[in-house]
Design brief:
Blueprint (H helix, E strand, L loop, with lengths): L21 E5 L3 E7 L7 E8 H6 L3 H13 L8 E6 L3 E7 L6 H6 L5 H8 L1
Antiparallel strand pairs: 1-2, 2-3, 3-5, 4-5
Length: about 120
Amino acid sequence: MRAQSGGAPGDIQILFPGQRELSLAHGTFAKVYHARHADDTGETIAIKVLDKEKALRNGLVLHIKREIAILRRMRRPNIVRLFEVMATRSKIYFAMEFVRSGELFACVAKGRLKEDTARRYFQ
Protein backbone atom coordinates (compact mmCIF):
# COMPACT_ATOMS: atom_id res chain seq x y z
CA MET A 1 0.00 0.00 0.00
CA ARG A 2 1.23 3.49 -0.74
CA ALA A 3 -0.13 6.67 0.68
CA GLN A 4 -1.74 9.08 -1.71
CA SER A 5 0.75 11.01 -3.76
CA GLY A 6 0.45 13.36 -6.65
CA GLY A 7 -2.10 15.58 -4.94
CA ALA A 8 -1.29 18.66 -2.96
CA PRO A 9 -0.61 18.10 0.74
CA GLY A 10 -3.81 20.06 1.40
CA ASP A 11 -5.70 17.07 -0.06
CA ILE A 12 -5.06 15.24 3.20
CA GLN A 13 -8.62 16.11 4.22
CA ILE A 14 -9.98 13.54 1.79
CA LEU A 15 -8.50 10.89 4.06
CA PHE A 16 -11.35 11.61 6.49
CA PRO A 17 -14.45 11.40 4.26
CA GLY A 18 -17.66 12.14 6.13
CA GLN A 19 -16.24 11.45 9.57
CA ARG A 20 -14.52 13.33 12.34
CA GLU A 21 -10.76 13.05 12.53
CA LEU A 22 -9.89 10.48 15.17
CA SER A 23 -6.81 11.46 17.17
CA LEU A 24 -4.86 8.40 18.31
CA ALA A 25 -2.09 10.17 20.19
CA HIS A 26 -0.63 13.60 20.74
CA GLY A 27 2.52 15.11 22.11
CA THR A 28 4.16 18.50 22.35
CA PHE A 29 5.05 18.70 18.65
CA ALA A 30 2.75 16.26 16.85
CA LYS A 31 -0.64 14.56 16.72
CA VAL A 32 -1.37 11.16 15.19
CA TYR A 33 -4.69 10.57 13.44
CA HIS A 34 -6.41 7.37 12.37
CA ALA A 35 -7.25 7.74 8.68
CA ARG A 36 -8.67 5.81 5.79
CA HIS A 37 -6.71 5.75 2.53
CA ALA A 38 -8.36 7.91 -0.13
CA ASP A 39 -8.01 5.37 -2.95
CA ASP A 40 -10.37 2.48 -3.72
CA THR A 41 -8.68 0.15 -1.21
CA GLY A 42 -9.87 2.15 1.79
CA GLU A 43 -6.92 0.82 3.81
CA THR A 44 -6.39 2.18 7.30
CA ILE A 45 -3.29 4.31 7.89
CA ALA A 46 -1.98 6.68 10.55
CA ILE A 47 -1.19 10.32 9.80
CA LYS A 48 1.39 11.99 12.04
CA VAL A 49 1.04 15.78 11.83
CA LEU A 50 3.94 17.94 13.02
CA ASP A 51 3.80 21.69 13.52
CA LYS A 52 6.71 23.20 11.55
CA GLU A 53 6.90 26.38 13.62
CA LYS A 54 7.20 24.45 16.91
CA ALA A 55 9.81 22.14 15.37
CA LEU A 56 11.89 25.09 14.15
CA ARG A 57 11.57 26.97 17.45
CA ASN A 58 12.75 23.93 19.40
CA GLY A 59 15.60 22.93 17.10
CA LEU A 60 14.00 19.67 15.95
CA VAL A 61 14.61 19.97 12.21
CA LEU A 62 17.64 17.66 12.25
CA HIS A 63 15.76 15.18 14.47
CA ILE A 64 12.80 15.11 12.04
CA LYS A 65 15.06 14.66 9.01
CA ARG A 66 16.84 11.81 10.80
CA GLU A 67 13.52 10.17 11.72
CA ILE A 68 12.39 10.31 8.08
CA ALA A 69 15.68 8.89 6.80
CA ILE A 70 15.64 6.01 9.30
CA LEU A 71 11.98 5.11 8.77
CA ARG A 72 12.41 5.09 4.99
CA ARG A 73 15.20 2.50 5.30
CA MET A 74 13.65 0.25 7.95
CA ARG A 75 11.73 -2.87 6.96
CA ARG A 76 11.32 -4.69 10.28
CA PRO A 77 8.23 -6.40 11.69
CA ASN A 78 8.13 -4.31 14.90
CA ILE A 79 8.95 -0.92 13.38
CA VAL A 80 6.14 1.11 11.87
CA ARG A 81 6.41 1.63 8.11
CA LEU A 82 6.56 5.11 6.58
CA PHE A 83 4.69 5.38 3.27
CA GLU A 84 4.92 9.06 2.37
CA VAL A 85 5.99 12.46 3.74
CA MET A 86 4.11 15.59 2.66
CA ALA A 87 4.45 19.20 3.78
CA THR A 88 2.65 22.52 3.68
CA ARG A 89 3.91 25.89 4.88
CA SER A 90 2.85 25.13 8.45
CA LYS A 91 2.67 21.32 8.81
CA ILE A 92 4.59 18.14 8.01
CA TYR A 93 2.50 15.00 7.39
CA PHE A 94 3.82 11.45 7.77
CA ALA A 95 1.56 8.79 6.21
CA MET A 96 2.41 5.67 8.21
CA GLU A 97 1.35 2.11 8.81
CA PHE A 98 -1.51 1.92 11.31
CA VAL A 99 -0.66 -0.32 14.26
CA ARG A 100 -3.68 -1.39 16.30
CA SER A 101 -1.73 -2.13 19.46
CA GLY A 102 -0.31 1.39 19.67
CA GLU A 103 3.28 2.31 20.39
CA LEU A 104 5.73 0.31 22.45
CA PHE A 105 6.46 3.23 24.78
CA ALA A 106 2.84 3.20 26.00
CA CYS A 107 3.11 -0.53 26.84
CA VAL A 108 6.39 -0.10 28.71
CA ALA A 109 5.16 3.01 30.56
CA LYS A 110 2.41 0.90 32.19
CA GLY A 111 5.04 -1.23 33.88
CA ARG A 112 7.36 -4.13 33.26
CA LEU A 113 6.58 -6.48 30.41
CA LYS A 114 6.54 -10.19 31.10
CA GLU A 115 9.45 -11.99 29.48
CA ASP A 116 7.24 -13.78 26.93
CA THR A 117 5.64 -10.48 25.90
CA ALA A 118 8.97 -8.63 25.69
CA ARG A 119 10.45 -11.40 23.55
CA ARG A 120 7.82 -10.75 20.83
CA TYR A 121 8.91 -7.11 20.56
CA PHE A 122 12.67 -7.51 20.88
CA GLN A 123 13.54 -10.60 18.83
